[in-house]
């Protein structure tokens, strides 16, 4: 497809990063990965991807904090952030919204559902 859209996947689970990465690559996206919040935020600032897929539970800094920092920075605030998390408690959904998240996909996710969410934000 070669749509040249770049997606950063921030997840401490190697398996999930790999599965999400493969799925997105097969759909024609260029995928970058980060295994923790600090690395994720650094890559958001450096790469300025077209979209960030972000886990909530990360070893060093919660995904909420990464999203909040990204949305507070004028250079990165326009980048859509989609949370991918096993936690779908109302508190987490509200927290995601309050830090500026653009979308939320629950784990275990369906590849098709994830791609539909991604496509909402990455119109060619």
What does this structure look like?
- The chain has helices at residues 14-26, 37-47, 63-72, 90-98, 111-121, and strands at 6-10, 30-34, 51-54, 81-85, 103-106.
- The chain is an alpha/beta fold.
- The chain has a single domain (6-118), classed as Response regulator (Rossmann fold).
- A 5-stranded parallel beta sheet has the order 2-1-3-4-5, sandwiched between helices.
- Helix 2 packs parallel to helix 3 (63-72).
- The chain starts with 5 loop residues before the first strand and ends with a helix.
- The mean pLDDT is 92.
State the domain count: 1
* Spatial sequence of strands, sheet with the most strands: 2-1-3-4-5
Share in helix: 40-55%
Largest sheet: 5 strands, parallel
Low-pLDDT runs: none
Query: Which CATH-level-2 architecture?
Result: 3-Layer(aba) Sandwich
CATH topology: Rossmann fold
Structural class: alpha/beta
Separation, N- and C-terminal Cα atoms: 11 Å
Dominant shape = globular
The first-level CATH class name: Alpha Beta
Blueprint of the fold:
Elements: E1 6-10, H1 14-26, E2 30-34, H2 37-47, E3 51-54, H3 63-72, E4 81-85, H4 90-98, E5 103-106, H5 111-121
Helix pairs in contact: 2-3
